[in-house]
Amino acid sequence: MKLVLFDCDGTLVDSQHVIVAAMTRAFARADLVLPPREAVLGIVGLSLVEAMRRLGEDDPRFPAERLAELYREAFRELRAEQDFFEPLFPGVRGVIDKLAARDDVVLGIATGKSQRGVAMVLGHHGLDGFFSTIQTADDAPSKPHPAMVLQAMAATGAEPEDTVLIGDTSFDMVMARAAGARAIGVTWGYHTTELLRQSGAERLVSDADELMRAIDEVWEAVP
Ligand SMILES: [Mg+2]
């Protein structure tokens, strides 16, 4: 059995607009200056408190937990105020459908989102029931800790060499390799190709067709 694990933000869905909007609101309410957009997008994928700590450059006086709470509040408000949704990246739906149709593959998710956040995204896009295991910030330490991948493998019975993580950030690549799994980086997300390569991506793909090919090729290659 092969396990294909997807990151969510920046890999399946483009969530940058709502994330930046919620960050802007959270920092304003804390009377703090929002770091540059690039820095904000650079932490997408981490669990919320960990993400805030990084934005505060690990200064122990930085109010990371308070900001995480303000962010959650802002995210809820934005969802209620606007008809916003996080669109799937082009071709992603086809990749999921093709993989789901195979009987040698199970699908999973490993994300810094909450279970509730993932459920909303999947429900919106009609993807309920496609993923056998959903690992979130509610269930494990933040990426790049390998726990989410280890738990997903345990839940599905997949071996590390039969598991591939598909993600858009260095956190995903480091997490996958630390768990002994394979790692494919997508270049349509929030980290640079350079950073993905440096952090352990075995393959880099820039569209859905390339991704489908890379998934099969990575299993044929020696780890
Ligand atoms: Mg991501």
- Please write the string of helix (H) and strand (E) elements: EHHHHHEHEHEHEHEH
Number of domains: 2
CATH superfamily of the largest domain: HAD superfamily/HAD-like
Please count the beta strands (DSSP E, at least 2 residues each): 6
Main sheet characteristics? 6 strands, parallel
Low-confidence stretches: none
Strand percentage, roughly?
5-15%
Strand arrangement, major sheet: 3-2-1-4-5-6
Class derived from helix and strand content: alpha/beta
Bound molecules: magnesium ion
Protein name: HAD-superfamily hydrolase, subfamily IA, variant 1
Organism: Ancylobacter novellus (strain ATCC 8093 / DSM 506 / JCM 20403 / CCM 1077 / IAM 12100 / NBRC 12443 / NCIMB 10456) (Starkeya novella)
GO molecular function: phosphoglycolate phosphatase activity
InterPro entries: HAD-like_hydrolase_sf, HAD-like_sf, HAD-SF_hydro_IA, HAD_2, HAD_sf, PGP-like_dom2
